[in-house]
Amino acid sequence: TTAHPNLSSPHPYRSLNDSVPTINNGLAKTPPMGWNSWNAFHTHINEKQIKAVADDMVADGMKAAGYKYLILDDAWLAHHRNSKGQLMANPKRFPDGMKAIADYIHSKGLKFGIYESAGTHTCAGYPGSLNHEKQDAQTFAKWGVDYLKLDNCGNQGVSYIKRYAGMAKALKATGRPIVYSICEWGVKAPWQWAPKFGNLWRTTGDIQDNWQSVMRILDQQVGLYKYAGPGHWNDPDMLEVGNGGMTTTEYKAHFSLWAMLAAPLIAGTDLRHMSSQTKSILENKNVIAIDQDPKGAEAHKAVDNGQEEVWVKPLSDGSRAVLLLNRSSKNRFMTTTAKTVGLKKANYYKEKNLWTNKTRRTDDLIRGYVHSHGVVMYRVWPK
Ligand code: GLA
């Protein structure tokens, strides 16, 4: 495997954030981790089921693994605002109201996230927050919301800056710490403006539970590493791990790649029926540590020869995460070098395989037998 001539140097560092202001609300110093209802349930959410998910986040070890935000996506709303213009919970799905569900989630030691849209309506047709930013932010704060995902449906062509900056201002005015997730689908290059307003911003359209979708999204992340850092992250969309549309090999690759990208790790599978295989992927401590590394650098692609790619993420202790990806339909033996991935020259290297948990001493060749649609992921220290 040779370095692709058109790719940037293997030692790139963030440049954007030296010159562009970024949000400074003190939140999401590492990529947010949590669970969101959309990929598992779509609009079919209700109070009983969400409480069960909260219970399971604790019982399944998800909370202990770092997943702390439980986020209700679209369809939690009533079809109309109340007589004072305030948002209300959907009376059929959440008869006890949002404050009650927030209290329940908080009682589990979890944080509460909610969904709205920077438009006249949400994607599922419920009342949107456009021109109600101040009032809605106050309602969220009153309920105890800790995280807001703001979608892009019903935008009426109003400028994205006006819409997303408007809610940023309204959230700040509440005085409550609320992680702000900008869900603009990557339409207007949000990495160029969203770091100023939000803690994370979607870089693409919606993920689907298949390998093609994961690869399409991955290709859209190339070059975006320079926009990410502590407090402000690219969001390649939520995880599909466990939802049945991919093989275990593919789900491991999806999860590993998201960790390399310093992506928000927002699980989206029905935790009430999580298999031990899904659990072992979502709760892999080695891989989560790569995502959550305090340096907050996002991986860049160091090598690309069409079917084989090498991604590299610099880590806070001077080691690097190195991921070998095989996009082809055949298993392959892949090799790269310490130099190619930007590791400093050393007598030898310590290399930990993050899926087998085996550590070995190596020379400057980094190699692995990589299954079709799979990855081998190492953490490598120069010694
Ligand atoms: C959009 C978003 C999704 C999800 C749905 C809900 O498609 O991109 O993540 O929130 O709306 O309707």
Explain what the structure shows:
The strands form 3 sheets. The protein has an 8-stranded parallel β-sheet with strand order 7-6-5-4-3-2-1-8. The protein is globular and about 70 Å long. With 383 residues, the protein is an alpha/beta fold. The protein is 26% helix and 21% strand. The longest helix is centred in the middle third of the chain and has 15 residues, at 160-174. The protein has helices at residues 16-19, 38-41, 47-59, 62-65, 98-107, 133-143, 160-174, 211-220, 248-260, 276-282, 285-291, and strands at 33-36, 69-72, 111-117, 147-151, 179-182, 200-202, 233-235, 265-267, 300-304, 308-314, 320-326, 332-337, 349-353, 359-362, 365-370, 374-382. α6 (133-143) crosses α7 and α9 runs parallel beside α10. The protein is built from 11 helices and 16 strands.
State the end-to-end CA separation.
Answer: 24 Å
* Mean pLDDT rating: 95
- DSSP helix count? 11
What percentage of residues falls in helices of 4 or more residues? 25-40%
